[in-house]
């Protein structure tokens, strides 16, 4: 079906649709896509949306035993309740197969239950079989009669589970005379070892469910199959096919959490075994699912705008089509900021700078745009916007605001690991992370915990970048800002960088040591290193070192002695433009012209690569000039230096990273990962 329209559209896969899975890290818009799909098709075709991270799937209700409840069984009930709703041109869908199976599962926990609890649980499940009769209350009264029979059977002297199941099947047979419902009442005859007896099949299902482990997984697969069989039945026959256009749509958010993996695996396995269904599944999960869905077809979302060209093989996971959501473009960012700010005076560089900071992360762009709308023109720098309080548009009226960076971290990183990630964001590899953990985290957080946290970041879908413990630049910036603001006097910030300065003592790790010195405002060693290595280092390596050292974070101004303090102001532009040359003493024996040029260049790159500062055209011009002059001093490396003099200023003004020209991806090889493991 076309979205928002009650008319058909040719099917690319008429026999079996792919199980679509949206992948990626937090904040990329996966939930927004599912919400848009639900809104597009609701009322036209049966639609259900379940968020697997909701509290209702975390554990059984207080009065229900764990052996008669599971996240997957609960999800099937919730999905069926939503799918049952009437749509244009067709009435409610009934779920007699699923209803019978869920009653059998629930009956396994009624050993010491009171009759009211049994009645409450039974009636909710039985309403899945409500057909929406025009006779008001008929289905509800029928459900009440069935519940009364089940309660009587469950509280009697006979076998509890078999009595409840028998009462349910008898009531289904009595209440519905249609062939469709009669077929559904005997569907469990084919359950393994049922011997053609539906009641025995349901008793076995209940026992397998209570047994847990792989036995429960077996029972849950049959419950999923029951849901899909009921949906298939609803579309069977001439009249239903005329009334119901399209396919039922099932949407699963946070499918990496239970009940997601079990439901996905059950559907894929049945499809691989030839048990067909026509349900359109779209799930969203964090990470790439490489373990669970190793044979899945992988595409970028733009690649499937017209056709998916998806063809499965014999493996269950090949029935899945994984789609990575792309980041937003600079133009998208421009439109989002413009729409949020309306008549507010937006600095022309702000949208591009916001895109550079966020890397196109939709959540980051939206919250920054809302912060700009609420604080412009008072706060225009990205650093000021991140620390400004914002109340997101979707929040309830009267709810107090909170700093933007906190609101973003709440939704971009696992809350249970926020403290550890705040500290380890300054690290580059396992060894440096262990050094930080030993200094700033509890003793219980050791090398094994560091490894586990790295694994978690990969599972969350955050990129692995050599030389960065937290690979995503946007998330890393937010965590470092939180580390900087952790104490009023920035004590944790200083301790973290001082720890890493001591950690990186080897000559081959000089750029890491200088990077952390620069983060504390100490520039002399960095200038000296770049000055002394310029004549002999390979130009490409020298440019990478310059860029890496100058990528040091800068959240507050530094005074003349290099101390970090809480005031306003940014001396980097003044240094880059040569306004402090006269007052700066050149070290004895150093080439004064080269020394001052390197000093100006370092501060220019430091400011222009700062994701929190809008690019200054004057500093860009100075960067171009300084690199151009350096290219004249190295004839052999003239091409690289001259190319950088053109590419870097243009990238800064456009809000792009200063990549290349020698390494277009801008990655950096980290230090030896074996360091610090003893």
Describe it.
Helices cover 50% and strands 5% of the residues. By secondary structure, it is mostly helical. Helix 3 (96-107) runs antiparallel to helix 6, helix 9 packs across helix 11 and helix 12 packs parallel to helix 14. The protein has helices at residues 30-41, 71-83, 96-107, 115-126, 138-154, 160-175, 179-185, 198-211, 213-234, 238-243, 260-272, 330-341, 350-358, 362-375, 382-387, 404-412, 418-424, 430-440, 447-459, 473-484, 491-503, 510-519, 524-533, 539-549, 572-576, 592-608, 617-633, 638-654, and strands at residues 19-23, 47-51, 249-253, 280-284, 297-300, 320-324, 389-390, 402-403. The two termini are 60 Å apart. The strands form two sheets. It has a six-stranded parallel beta sheet with strand order 2-3-4-1-6-5, sandwiched between helices. Residues 673-678 have low confidence and may be disordered. It has 28 helices and eight strands. It is elongated.
Fold blueprint:
Elements lengths: L18 E5 L6 H12 L5 E5 L19 H13 L12 H12 L7 H12 L11 H17 L5 H16 L3 H7 L12 H14 L1 H22 L3 H6 L5 E5 L6 H13 L7 E5 L12 E4 L19 E5 L5 H12 L8 H9 L3 H14 L6 H6 L1 E2 L11 E2 H9 L5 H7 L5 H11 L6 H13 L13 H12 L6 H13 L6 H10 L4 H10 L5 H11 L22 H5 L15 H17 L8 H17 L4 H17 L24
Parallel strand pairs: 1-4, 1-6, 2-3, 3-4, 5-6
Antiparallel strand pairs: 7-8
């Amino acid at each position: 079906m076309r979205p928002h329209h009650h008319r058909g559209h040719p099917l690319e896969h008429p026999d079996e649709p792919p199980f679509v899975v949206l992948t990626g890290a937090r904040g990329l818009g996966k939930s927004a896509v599912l919400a848009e799909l639900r809104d597009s098709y609701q009322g036209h075709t049966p639609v259900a949306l379940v968020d697997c991270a909701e509290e209702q799937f975390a554990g059984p209700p207080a009065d229900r035993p764990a052996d008669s409840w599971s996240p997957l069984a609960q999800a099937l009930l919730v999905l069926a309740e939503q799918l049952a709703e009437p749509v244009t041109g067709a009435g409610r869908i009934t779920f007699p197969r699923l209803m019978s199976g869920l009653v059998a599962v629930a009956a396994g926990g009624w050993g010491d239950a009171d009759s009211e609890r049994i009645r409450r649980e039974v009636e909710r499940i039985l309403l899945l079989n409500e057909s929406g009769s025009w006779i008001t209350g008929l289905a509800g009264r029928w459900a009440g009669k069935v519940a009364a029979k089940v309660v009587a059977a469950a509280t009697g002297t006979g076998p509890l589970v078999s009595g409840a199941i028998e009462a349910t099947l008898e009531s289904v047979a009595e209440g519905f005379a249609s062939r469709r419902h009669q077929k559904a009442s005997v569907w469990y005859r084919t359950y393994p070892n049922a011997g053609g007896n539906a009641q025995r099949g349901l008793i076995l299902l209940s026992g397998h469910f209570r047994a847990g482990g792989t036995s429960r997984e077996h029972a849950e697969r049959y419950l999923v199959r029951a849901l899909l069989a009921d949906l298939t039945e609803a579309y069977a026959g001439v009249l239903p096919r005329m009334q119901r256009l399209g396919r039922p749509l099932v949407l699963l958010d946070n499918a990496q959490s239970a009940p997601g993996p079990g439901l996905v695996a059950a559907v894929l396995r049945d499809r691989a075994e030839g048990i067909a269904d026509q349900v359109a599944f779209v799930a969203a999960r964090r990470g790439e699912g490489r373990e669970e869905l190793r044979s899945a077809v992988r595409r970028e979302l733009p690649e499937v705008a017209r056709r998916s060209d998806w063809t499965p093989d014999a493996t269950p996971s090949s029935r899945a089509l994984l789609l990575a959501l792309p980041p937003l473009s600079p133009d998208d960012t421009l439109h989002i900021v413009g729409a949020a700010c309306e008549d507010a005076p937006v600095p022309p560089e702000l949208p591009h700078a916001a895109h550079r900071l966020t890397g196109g992360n939709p959540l980051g762009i939206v919250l920054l745009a809302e912060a700009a709308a609420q604080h412009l023109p008072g706060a225009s720098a990205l650093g000021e916007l991140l620390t400004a309080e914002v109340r997101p548009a979707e929040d309830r009226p009267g709810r107090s605001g909170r700093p933007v960076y906190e609101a973003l971290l709440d939704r971009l990183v696992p809350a249970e690991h926020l403290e550890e990630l705040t500290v380890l964001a300054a690290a580059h590899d396992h060894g440096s992370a262990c050094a930080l953990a030993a200094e700033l985290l509890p003793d219980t957080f050791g090398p094994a915990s560091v490894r586990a946290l790295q694994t978690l970041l990969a599972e969350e879908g955050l990129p692995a970048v050599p030389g960065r413990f937290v690979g995503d630049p946007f998330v890393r910036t937010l965590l470092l800002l939180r580390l900087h603001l952790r104490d009023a006097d920035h004590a944790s910030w200083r301790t973290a960088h001082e720890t890493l300065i001591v950690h990186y003592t080897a000559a081959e790790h000089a750029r890491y040591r200088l990077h952390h010195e620069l983060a504390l405002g100490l520039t002399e060693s960095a200038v000296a290193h770049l000055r002394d290595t310029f004549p002999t280092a390979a130009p490409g390596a020298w440019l990478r070192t310059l860029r890496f050292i100058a990528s040091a974070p800068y959240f507050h101004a530094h005074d003349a002695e290099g101390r970090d303090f809480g005031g306003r102001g940014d001396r980097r532009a003044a240094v880059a433009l040569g306004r402090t040359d006269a007052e700066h003493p050149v070290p004895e024996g150093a080439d004064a012209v080269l020394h001052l040029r390197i000093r100006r260049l370092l501060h220019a790159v430091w400011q222009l690569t700062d994701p929190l500062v809008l690019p200054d055209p004057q500093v860009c011009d100075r960067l171009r000039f300084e690199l151009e002059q350096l290219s004249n001093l190295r004839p052999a490396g003239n091409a690289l230096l001259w190319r950088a003099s053109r590419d870097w200023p243009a990238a800064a003004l456009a809000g792009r990273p200063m990549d290349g020209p020698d390494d277009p991806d801008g990655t950096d090889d980290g230090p030896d990962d074996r360091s610090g493991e003893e």
